[in-house]
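Look over this today:
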Amino acid sequence: MSTLNKLAIRGIRSFDDKNLSVIEFFSPVTVIVGHNGSGKTTVIECLKYATTGDQPPGTRGGAFVHDPKMANEKEVKAQVKLRFYAANGQRMLAVRNLSVTMKKTAGMTMKTLESILALDNGNAEKSGKRAVISTKCAEMDVEIPHLLGVSKAVLENVIFCHQEDSYWPLSEASILKKKFDDIFEATRYTKALDSIKALRKERVAELKTEKERLESLAREKGHADKIKARISDMSASIASKEVEYQSTKRVYDALVLSNRKFEEGATKFREIYIRVENLEKQKMKYQEELAELRSSVEEMPDTDEQLAERIKNFNQHIAAKRNDRRDEEAKEQDKEDELSAARKRHVQLNEEYGQLTAEATAQEERIRDREALIREIAAQFNIRGFDTSPLERDRIADFTTKLASLLSQQTAETDHVQSDINDSNSTYNEKSRQLHAVSERHKQQWASNRSRISKLQSDISSSESKLEASEMLDGDLQSVVSDIEDKKTRIRKLRSEIASAKYDDRTAELNAKLRTMEDKRDSLTLEIRTLSLQSDARAKLTLHQKDLTSKEREMKNLLQISNAKLSKHIGMHAGADTIENEVNAVIMKKEKAHADLEAECSLADRKLHDTEASISSLNTQLKAKQEELKGLEKTLRDGLGGHPCAEDAIKDVTEEINFLRESLSKSSEGLDLYQKLLDFGKTKHLCQVCSRHMTDDELKPFEQYLNDKIKQTSPENRLILEGDLQTWESALGDYQGLVSVEGSIKRLKEVDVSSLEEQIGEEDALLPTLTKAAEEASDRLQTLKKELKDLVALRQHASNVSRLHGDCKDLKREISTIENTLAATGSKKTADDVQQELDDLSAELRSTDKEKQNLQNDRERRNSVLRTQEAELHDLELRESNLQSRVRERATLRGSIEAMQQEMTSLTSQLKELDVKILDGQSPIDVLDKEHQLAQAELNAKLTQAQQIAQDLSIGVDKLEGATKTIDRYIREKRGKRLQECSDSIAQYEATIQGHRLNIEQIRKTIAQLDKEINEGGAALTNLRENRRIKKLQRDIEGTQRDIDSCDLEEAAKAKRNFEEKYQPEKDKENELHQKSAHISGELNQLQGQLKQAESDWEAYANINKKYTDQLVKVKMSDMANNDLEKYGKALDNAIMKYHSLKMEEVNDTMRHLWNKTYQGTDIDGIRIRYDSEGGASKRSYNYRVVMTKDQVEMDMRGRCSAGQKMLASILIRLALSDSFGQNCGILALDEPTNALDTENIDALAASLVDIINERKNHANFQLIIITHDENFLRKLGQSDVMEYYWRVSRDSRQKSVIERQRFG
């Protein structure tokens, strides 16, 4: 149990900052006495500061510490030491230090210095050391209330309540609620409750999310299991397909190799046939070309080497001519470049000439404008001698100088006028200021006199009114003296009546009777407290019974809901103890069926997937074949070029080749013939064929015709025909190659594509059946999943039913135990019986108390009448004194009126004189203002005229300078000279261009002559070349015949027959194997792609089983934790309500007892604290109010009670709160408890405190600290033998507070 030992104070408020003042606290009571302002309350403030760290209200800025100005110091250090015994019995020492420093601005700065909380035991004192617990103020503020065994709120509001806050129980509702919430520590528990509820709400939301995640994971797990099964099935299918593909591939590769070797060996006959055919064609072609050449060329006997030598030399001659031509062309190009550059420069010079000509024109215009400007300015400002034109540079410079001089003169004149204006303004301002100063002095004196006259008039009127009112004072004074004598007679009579009533004896008898009944009430109260010790057990029993009823109702509802769902699956209802097992059994059965159905569904999906994969593979192969067919058809279509088939194309090309060969043969024979006919016709004017003579007119068409024929049979035309022949022969080879393409197209259309389409049709026919089977299996699986989901939800209900069933069993067992415990006490009276006896006794107490109150009221009534009469006597005596004083003041008032009237007459004459002076002083001011205005107007006109002239001159100077700068810049840049140079350059370039033209014409004539020489040498060169070609063709024919003779045609015929018999069957077999292997490869690729996708999907579900298990455990644990939080929240809420109710009943019971024992009036039967709940069950809080009862009627005490009743109620409420919340700390400090109490209530309060002290003086931790200035109250306490010493606080000669211990009596 915690108690206070000693308190040391230094530098706090009026306590000396140099010495410590120590007070020791006695048990059971410590009384501190002193006059007002001696420093008594400082002791309570120091106790509160030492234990809580809170300074008194209104002491911010250093008011709590001794004032440095009073101590004549810049800094004052304060200290509070408290030695106390903690609740665990250890002696502790708390030291708190403060300092206050004066600032330069006359303010103060307060600082909290280092504090100490330490153990203070005997061993520590011997060793000179203390075990320091903390030196931080914040830690001490928490630790000290904990050591004292009470909360900080109890210390502030109950134990060490400041005198200014002593009425807090009757403060407004919001403050009262905060105080009681702090005392009950409701905030801490409600915060804990709110935290539990918020945590549960948050966790319920999280649980909902986690359940959704669990469902999602369950779906993912099912999907992952399906993927895993698909991966296994596809891996097996891929393995079997790979084996089948490898075997088919090996057979196909061997057959392809065999067919390729057979084809390579068997198809050599084709090469022989084609080679012989080509050689024959080549030989025939050479022979035709040789015959054609011999028919059109004159053969020479020279050898091939000799012909080559002649062609070589001829080429050198032609090459020399061509080199000369190129040289001339290069010269022509050079001359063309020079001509182009000269023309370009000529154009540039023309452009520059045009620009310079425009500038020269503009320069002349500017000169004319400048001269016009000069003449204009000269005429405006009367400057003579500049009317001639043109003006030379010297004349222009002279004009510019004169204009600048004129501008300077005008600027000086303007400044002079402005100076005159400034001087005039200064003179006017000085004279005006002097005249106005004199006038203002007269006006101020006039206003002062006028104000004084008004005040004197008001004072005279007031004094006359008072004088008139005092005329009746003599009669009033005589009447008051008569009333005083009458009041004294009545007061003597009332005092004799009060003495004869013997109120003290009658009150003592009633007090004795009341003490007897209070003793009996105390014994009944002790008995009911004994019975109330079982209230916890009874409350627990009631709580368990309510919980049992609630859980049984909840279990019944859940069981009813669960059985309604369970009967659909098992066809019967289950009990609370078996429902969970039955639900689990149904779920296991459904899960097994679910696994079987999933396997069936997977098999159906796999079959459907295989069929779809096969169709996809066949479609891929069909598409590939169709693409190949389209490519071959496009190749054939592009190659045929409009022919219906390859055979027709070959036929047409062969005819065209024969026609070209025939044309070449005719060309070689007809050239010489046509040339001979033309020469003969020109010479003889006669046609050699028909021997007809021709005139000159007829000869021209003849020559034209033969020239056309010669051109057609010329070597150039022959070369064209040979090129066409080669082109058609190449086309023939291409068309022959298209024959095999036509065969491949026919095979693809008739064999490959039709076979694939048949297979696709067969697979498509199976697809609807497999799809329907897969969909039916999926529907059954979804139905079963839905049932499983419902059963899983039902399992939660079943689990809750089983849990509630177990909870009900536990509650029934606990209820039985509590009932047995209560039955074993053997008490004959119940708490209600004892409470009834206590209520009856309280009624009798109230009746006796009422009788006592009536007696006291009668006594108080007579005393009140006596006090009223005495007060009225005192008022009459004061009125008598006042009337005598007013009679003396009447004579003084008459003299002051006469003096004020004389002063007012003097001031009136002074006002008249000042009016004349003010009028005389105003006329010089008006004359001065008028003269100044006229002078100012004249000077302003001069200034405006001068400024205008200066502005015009400045504008003229600026314009002239601008024009002159532009003209000078043209001359400075020598643009006129550049114009002449440009004209000379244009003439020079025109002559150069004409020379280049003549040179180019001469070069072109030379080039034409060289072209003529080169062209005439072409015919001789052609004849030499054609002779070399004849020699070459003869050699080619001989070589071709040798190649034909070397081919074995008989062996080729045998190989052809063998190929036609064996190759096609093997090739068909090869195509069949290729198709099969391609089909298997397509299926294998598709399966591998699906497997890769499935494995990729499986990677996303790699840890799905672990995640699902962890999530399931998490959901279950969260659900159980949420249920526990719900239980904890309900239990804590019920405990808070129960604790609050018990404590409030305990406080109200103590208050009722103390009020009946202490209060001496009869207008209030009792007081109690009424608490009203608000906010509902989810967020409960209480509102508090103090009520008083009278005849079973409750009324709010706030605003309806007197100051004494407020003080007494506040003290008793604090006593009751201390009794209930201070079990570990029996300390209570009462600061001025008798404030506003009358004598009877002071006596009753002293008696009640004495009873409390006697009742608890044997308790080791009970300490009552009373601070009072009432010596009678001290005497009442001292006469009750509850204390031997008390402390007196007073001021010494230095006005410092000192504490002295004194013995009572």
The mean pLDDT is 78. The first strand starts at residue 3 and ends at 10. The first helix runs from residue 40 to 52.
